[in-house]
Amino acid sequence: MNIRIKLLISLCIFVSIIWTGYLFVLQIFNPIDITETERIRYDEHKEFILANRGNIYDQKGLLLVSSMQYYQLDIDLFGVRQAANDHHQSAEDYLLLVAQIIGENTDLTSKEVYNKLTKTKTRSVLISEKIDYQQLFKIRNRMEEENINACVFTYSSTKRIFTKGLLAARLIGLTKGKIDSQNAYTRNTFRLEGINGIEKTFEKDLEGDYGWRRIFYDAKRRKIANPNSIFKPVIHGSSIYLTIDSEIQEILEKNLQAGLVKYKAENGIGVIMDPMTGNIIAMAGVNENDIHCSENQVRGFQNMPVKFKFEPGSTIKPLVSLLAIEKNIHQENDLLDCRPMIVQYKNAQRRIRDAHDFQTLSFKNVIVQSSNVGIAKIAQEIGEQDLYRQYINFGIGTTTGIDLIDESSGQFAKRSDWSDYTLHSISFGQEMQITAIQLTNIYAAFANGGQLLKPNIIEKKVDAQGKVYYKAEKKVIKKLSNPESIALNNSFLLDVVESGTGKNTKFNSIKIAGKTGTAEKAVAGKLSKTSYIASFAGFFPFEKPEYVMVIIYDAPDYMYRFGSMSAAPTFRNIVEEILTMPDCKIITEYKMKDIDYTITPQLIGLNIQDANRILDEKGIRYSNYHDKANSFVLHQIPQPGVKISLNTQVSLYCGDLLDIERTRIVTNESIMPNLVGLSIREAIHIAKMHKLNLSIVGNGHVASQSIEEGKKIGYQQECLVVAR
Predict the structure, then answer these.
(1) Is 365 among the domain residues?
(2) If you write DSSP's letter for every residue of 22-77 in order, what string do you get?
C-alpha cells in the first residue's frame, strides 16, 4: 500500500480517537460549565417597563412638581476608532471630538470626558449617569452628524423637578429613589417613593405600576423577537391637583418670612381656607433657619400647620362667648366685673388678671378687649361639662381629617383628668394645645354659619389618560350652634377689628372679623414668662366671607409678643395683597380707599441721598439696591408718575453716572440690565420695561442671568435667570 495512503488512514484513525474521547469526556464529566449559556438561551426573562410618577398641580392647573428621567451614557471606544478609520483620521482626533461634543452638551468639561476616554483599558467607558433627555438628544444628533456610532444610552434614574422652587415645600414633601431589583435581564426597576407630605400621602396615586414583558435571549445575550410574547401594560402615575392657589401661597410665604425677620420669631405659620367649601387655599410654615438649609432639607421638615402644637390663647375665647349666647347666659350689653380676681380652689388659690386692668366691661367687650377675667367668669357660669362638650364639638383634641399624613390631634385633657384650674385656664386658651389647621377650621365654622367642615387639600385626581376619578366635595362633619347665635358672636369679632385688640387689621373698604391671641409658650414643661405664641385668626369680607386665615408667630421678640403687634399686621398685609390680585372680585371699586395715595416722583438720575430725602418727605417707604457713596439712581420701581399707596415700597437701583448713560431706557435702545440680587417680581417688572422675555428657574432672588449686563438685547429676547 502506498505510504501516503497509510499515513492518511492513520491520521483519520487518530483524529477519530481524539474526537471520540473529547465527546466522551464532555458528556460524562462536563468539564465546561455551559449551564448559564443554556439558561440564557432557553429560559424566559421578564423585562420591566417603568411607570412615570404623576405630576402635582395647583388649583388653577399650574405645574408645581414633575419628573425628569436621567440616562447613563457609555462610549464604545471601538465605535470611535471605527469612525476614525472610516474618515482616515487618527483615533486621538476622534476621542477629542467626542469629548468636545459631550462637554458642550453636559455639565462635564471636555477635559474630564477626555480623561475618562483615555484612562481606561475597557472597551466601554462610563461617562455619566446624569444625562437628561435634552442633553441625550443633542449628543445623539451631533454624533450622527459626525458619523460616530459609539453612544450607548440606558435609563439611570428619575428626579423630581420643582418648577416653583421652595413654594409649598413642606406641604409637597420629598421623595427618595428606590431600586426593587436590578440585573442584566430585568433592567433597572428604579422608582421614586414619597417620604412625607403630599408625595407620601398620595403615594399609591402618584407612583403608578410597572409594566413588563417576557423575552428570550440568544447565547450572545441578544433579544429574540417574539410577537406573541406575554406582557403586562405599564400604568403611569396619576396627577394630583391641589386646592392651593400658587399666587396666594407665595403671598403667604413671603409675608411669613418677612415677619420672621421683623419680629425675630423662631417659626411663622399660616393657613388660608375657603370657609364655604373647606378647601385650603394656602398653607405654610417657615423657620428662621430655613435659609441655611438645602432645598431637600426644607422639604423634609414637618408641615407645621398640621403638626406644630401651641396654646391658642385668646383666639379660643369666642367659643366660650358663643356658648354663653346659645344658653342665654348673657346679653350683648350685660356688664361684668373685670377687675383682677383671686380664685380660691380646694388646695390652692390663683390670681387671674388682664394685660391691661379693667373695671367693668360689657359681655361684648369682654371679647373685644380680650379680658381673661371676664371670660373666666363666663366659663364659670357655663360649667365644666358644657364647656368641655363645646370644645369637643368644635374639634379640639381630634384631627380635622385633612388628607395629610401625621396630622396632630393637639392636646386636650379628658373631663375626668381636669384639675381645679382647668375650667378657667381653657377659657382663655391655656392647658390645651391645638394646631393651625384646627384653629382655621373653628373660624371657618364661625364664617359659614356653624358648619364644621372636613378641610380639603386635594381638588382632584386625574389618571394618565386624563380621566378624573376623584373630585373634592364639601363634607360637613357636624352642624354647630344656630345662625342667630353665630351672627351675634361674629359681630363681637367684627368689633375686635373695628375698635378692639385687632384694629391693626382694619380696612375701610372691607370689613374683617377676627381675634388676637397671646399665649405663654411652654418651655421644658413650664409656661415661660419671656417666650410667647402670637396669633390672629379671622375671616373676610365680614358680610360674605370668602377667606379664613390664621397667622401664628412662635417665640417672637418680647416687644412683639402680643398677637396685635405681630400676627395682626401680617394678616392685614396678606389681605391687602389678596385684594389687589387681578382676579380678586371682592372689591370691584375703590379696593383700597382707606389708604392714602400719592404719585411716584421722578428719581432717576438723582443722587441717592437726594432721592431718599424726597421719598422721606412724601412718606413713601423705599429700599436702595447696590448703593454706594455718591451713587445715583439708575432705575426705580414703580416708574415715575405711577399712583401708589403709601404702603407701597419704592425700589431704587443705584450706580455711578456712567451707569446712567449706559443703562438709560429709551424706546430705540435696549440694554440688558443687571437683575442679580432682585426678587423675582422685581426682575419681572424690569424685564417688562426692557421688552425682555424671562425664563425663571427657582424661587427667591436672582442669582445669575444668561445675558450679561450691558449687552444689547432684541425685542422679546429670551433670558434665563436662576433664582435661589
Answers:
(1) yes
(2) HHHHHHHH--S--HHHHHHHHS-EEEEEPPPPPPEE-TT--EEEEEEEEEEEEEEH
Amino acid, res. 719 = C
CA distance 545 to 275: 7
Q: What angle is formed at CA 293 by the lines to CA 290 and CA 299, rounded to 5 degrees?
A: 75
Domain final position from 238, 261, 283: 238
Query: Does residue 536 share a domain with residue 474?
Result: yes
Listed as own residue / partner, the contacts of 178-182 with beta carbons closer than 8 Å and 24 or more positions apart are 181/48
How many Å apart are CA 696 and CA 34, to the nearest integer? 58
Residue with cell string 422685581? 682
SS (H, E, C) 233-277: CCECCCEEEECCCHHHHHHHHHHHHHHHHHHCCCEEEEEEECCCC
Residues paired with 528 in a beta bridge: none
Q: For residue 320, give the nearest of 275, 410, 383 by alpha carbon.
A: 383
- Strand-pair partners of 194: 175
Q: What is the CATH number of the domain that holds 604?
A: 3.30.10.20
- Could you report the per-residue pLDDT of 342-400, keeping only the tens digit for each? 988 888 889 999 888 899 999 999 999 999 999 999 999 999 999 999 999 999 999 99
DSSP string, 273-309: E-TTT-BEEEEEEEETTGGGS-HHHHHHS--HHHH--
Beta-carbon count within 10 A of 398 CB = 14
Are 362 and 301 within one domain?
yes
Q: What Å distances lie between residue 502 and 359, 413, 455, 479, CA to CA?
A: 21, 30, 26, 28
Domain count, the chain: 4
Predicted model pTM: 0.73
Task: Please tell me whether residues 484 and 555 are part of one structural domain.
Answer: yes
Query: In which residue are the cell numbers 379671622 written?
Result: 538
User: Are 297 and 219 found together in one domain?
Assistant: no
Could you tell me where the DSSP H helices lie in 420-482? 422-427, 436-447
d(CA 251, CA 683): 17
Helix (H) or strand (E) holding 215: strand 211-217
Which structural domain, as residue segments, surrounds residue 428?
247-579
Angle at 643 between CA 639 and CA 645, to 5 degrees: 110
Residue pointed to by grid coordinates 424566559 = 44
Q: How far apart are CA 560 and CA 518, in angstroms?
A: 10
C-alpha distances out from residue 475 to 206, 400, 451, 483, Å: 24, 11, 9, 19
Residue corresponding to grid cell 432717576: 604
pLDDT digits (tens, 9 = 90+) for 629-676: 778 888 788 878 877 877 778 888 887 755 554 444 433 346 788 888
User: Among positive and negative, which fits the CA dihedral 591, 595, 596, 598?
Assistant: negative
> Is pLDDT at 617 greater than 50 in this prediction?
yes
Residue 375, C-alpha cell as written in the block: 371670660
- Residue 715: helix, strand or coil by DSSP? coil
Pull the grid cell for residue 325.
349666647
Closest CA to 654 of 668, 671, 637: 637
Q: Is residue 584, in this structure, part of any structural domain at all?
A: no
The enclosing domain of 177 has a CATH number of: 3.90.1310.10
CATH of the domain at 511: 3.40.710.10
Q: Check whether residue 266 and residue 229 sit in a common domain.
A: no
SS3 category, 431: coil
Q: Does 202 share its domain with 302? A: no
Domain annotation covers residue 586: no
Domain end marker among 200, 217, 238: 238
Using alpha carbons, select from 323, 344, 326 the residue that is nearest to residue 389: 323
